[in-house]
Design a protein that fits this description.
Elements lengths: L1 H28 L3 H12 L11 H21 L3 H33 L4 H10 L5 H10 L6 H13 L1 H18 L7 H32 L6 H19 L4 H13 L6 H26 L9 H24 L6 H9 L5 H12 L5 H29 L13 E4 L8 E6 L20 E4 L2 E3 L1 H4 L7 E6 L4 H8 L7 H7 L2 E4 L4 H8 L12 H9 L8 E4 L2 E8 L5 E8 L15 H20 L1
Antiparallel strand pairs: 1-2, 2-5, 3-4, 3-5, 6-9, 7-8, 8-9
Helix pairs in contact: 1-2, 1-12, 2-12, 3-10, 3-11, 3-12, 3-15, 4-5, 4-7, 4-8, 4-13, 5-8, 6-7, 8-9, 8-15, 9-10, 9-11, 10-11, 10-12, 13-14, 13-16, 15-16
Length: 605
């Protein structure tokens, strides 16, 4: 018994260690990290080095537990401002988009594999949701600085669409297992089940998040116990909501979203603990799912599965995304990128286990098909996210260079925070710029010695400074202590070489750069023109065409006003509107009206 226990610990810990070390190679060669983890599971599995693991129920349990931890952390790290900006389109993608994707993939599976319609739609449901872990790790860990609205849409969608996919999969598995293609349950029963799952998930998730914040802020514990308490509370929430018939996955995501946007004790410690825990959960989940797979069974289904993956990537996902985002003001290049970053990951493999656990006749076929689709998605889409984002001009150059900042927990700090900066070479403070009164350090650490600011003299590169400040000043402090951003040719191509202030009038711009003013009022500000064209809210990277140039938003202040605008003369990349297949409703209607006018003009001639 002891030998078995030690062997399991040795093998399990060794696999995790190898996965962590392999991340170095993944980052160096740009390989999708999650694909590496999954590949390691296959390498050490039954058809590889011989680790025999075929317990589907245990794999589903481990995967569900890991996914609940990942979703709580993803909600905890999502800013409420980002959620508000992209909530409606993201939730539309997470609900209607999942159904549309499942239906379109189901039709393809029916034609390519010859499954009955219920079985084909089950394949569609299994691979219908984007994977929260894959999306979060690619965009955050991969440090791809995508435009805020696009990034928020992808992250919220990937965190919120799992409950819908799980609901569809469970319903179809029960349908096939009980009726064997017969009549499904009453539509009313399905609606009640859906409403209970989603309603309880949202309601109890909010309640759980509220209780987590209240308990953490009320109790006085050892610092190391706060992360343990929050971890246990999130799992209690996950289990209790599931027992009540709700969606535990949705509940932990909502609870994390609420708690992460409130003032909660030891928030810095919670973030650091959850970051490490999420990595561990991610590695464990992919390794276990990789061990469960049997690659020797793949050849029998590989060609149809790859064909389904092709349909999913090039037809089902783009069509579903375009239809869901049609009412919203997304640019065609943004819609195209959202449709491309529909990565499938551990969730699809996890759902592929359900037919196995339920004892369906084609259970292994479902699992192997889902596994191959996930491998293809991670390999093709995961490896091309950065090039596609660059081609679509969605990677926003950084306005400042690297900044080293550490948020420190300070008991009883009320509405202030204690932050630590390391002065980097080339930063404004290292160059001798005067430090405002509100930014003066409380303490300076230089060469291992503590020095009061008034005795430290000019700050030097390498100094560690501690500042007690209000959160609203953190953005300004970052600019003071960061190194200047390195301007590249890509930055000039993106923002242009000329910069104008957002308060300047469109008439002044037209006069200085020989641009057409019509149909705008010359007294209207550039800020007003861009807002009017884009429908109100703006963000860094927004652009509009004006004659032969493009106006690109460079800086936006905390109130959302445009501070500066770049001018791109003769853009080298295709204009977003040329991706006509992804036009939103407003532009599509305008395009159709223009075409009708041209046709009527030709008829009059």
């Amino acid at each position: 018994m002891l030998d078995v226990m030690f062997s399991v610990i040795l093998v399990g810990a060794g696999l995790v260690m190898i996965a962590v070390l392999s991340s170095v190679l993944a980052f160096r060669f740009g390989a999708p990290l999650l694909f590496i983890f999954l590949g390691l599971g296959l390498l050490f599995g039954e058809d590889g080095l011989g680790i025999h693991f075929n317990d589907a129920s245990l794999a589903y349990f481990v995967g569900s537990l890991a996914l609940s931890l990942i979703l709580f952390d993803s909600g905890f790290c999502t800013r409420l401002s980002s959620f508000r900006a992209a909530a409606l389109p993201a939730v539309t993608l997470a609900s209607l988009g999942v159904v549309l994707t499942a239906a379109l993939v189901g039709v393809a599976a029916h034609v390519l594999i010859g499954f009955s319609l219920p079985e084909a739609f089950l394949i569609g449901a299994i691979v219908s949701s984007t994977d929260a872990a894959a999306v979060f790790f690619l965009l955050r860990v991969g440090r791809i600085q995508i435009r805020e609205r696009v990034r928020s849409t992808l992250e919220i969608e990937s965190g919120a669409n799992d409950p819908m996919a799980i609901f569809l999969t469970i319903v179809l598995v029960e349908w096939i297992a009980t009726d064997r293609g017969g009549a499904a349950g009453q539509a009313g029963d399905l609606l009640i089940m859906f409403a209970r799952q989603m309603g309880l998930g949202v309601a109890l998730g909010l309640l759980g998040g509220l209780l987590i914040v209240r308990i953490v802020n009320t109790l006085r514990l050892e610092a190391g116990l706060y992360p343990v308490l929050v971890l246990a509370a999130s799992l209690v929430l996950f289990g209790s909501v599931g027992m009540l018939g709700g969606s535990g996955f949705l509940a932990v995501y909502v609870a994390g979203l609420y708690a992460g946007n409130q003032r909660i004790a030891a928030k810095g410690a919670l973030r650091r603990f959850q970051e490490g825990l999420t990595w561990f959960a991610q590695i464990t989940m992919f390794l276990v799912l990789g061990l469960l797979a049997t690659p020797s069974q793949f050849p029998a289904i590989v060609l149809p599965a790859l064909a389904i993956a092709l349909v999913l990537t090039l037809i089902a996902r783009p069509v579903a995304v375009w239809l869901c985002l049609l009412p919203f003001r997304y640019q065609p290049n943004e819609t195209a990128f959202i449709s491309w970053v529909g990565l499938r990951g551990a969730v699809s493999i996890l759902l592929g286990i359900l037919p196995l656990a339920a004892g369906l006749e084609n259970g292994h076929l479902f699992f192997n098909t889902a596994f191959i689709i996930v491998l293809a998605s991670l390999l093709v889409q995961g490896w091309t996210v950065r090039p596609v984002a660059r081609w679509l001009r969605l990677i926003v150059p950084q306005s400042i260079g690297p900044v080293e900042r550490l948020d420190l927990d300070l008991p009883g700090a009320a509405h202030h925070e204690l932050v630590a900066y390391r002065v980097v070479p080339g930063s404004p403070v290292a160059s001798g710029e005067r430090i405002p009164r509100w930014a003066r350090p409380s303490l300076v650490i230089r060469d291992g010695q503590s020095i009061r600011h008034q005795f430290a003299g000019k700050l030097r590169p390498g100094d560690r400074v501690y500042i007690f400040t209000a959160p609203r000043y953190l953005r300004l402090l970052d600019r003071l202590f960061a190194s200047p951003a390195k301007l590249t040719e890509d930055d000039k191509d993106y923002f242009g070489e000329f910069v104008v202030h957002g308060n300047h009038t469109i008439g002044e711009l037209a006069e200085n750069y020989s641009l057409p003013v019509e149909p705008f009022d010359p007294r209207q500000t550039i800020d007003g023109v861009i807002r009017g064209r884009l429908g109100g809210a703006v963000e860094v990277g927004d652009r509009i065409g004006l004659g032969d140039i493009e106006l690109v938003v460079r800086q936006v202040d905390d109130a959302g006003n445009i501070e500066s605008v770049g001018l791109v003369v003769q853009p080298i990349a295709p204009k977003p509107e040329r991706i006509w297949v992804f036009l939103n409703a407003r532009k599509l209607i305008a395009r159709l009206k223009a075409r009708r006018q041209r046709r009527s003009q030709r008829e009059q001639r």
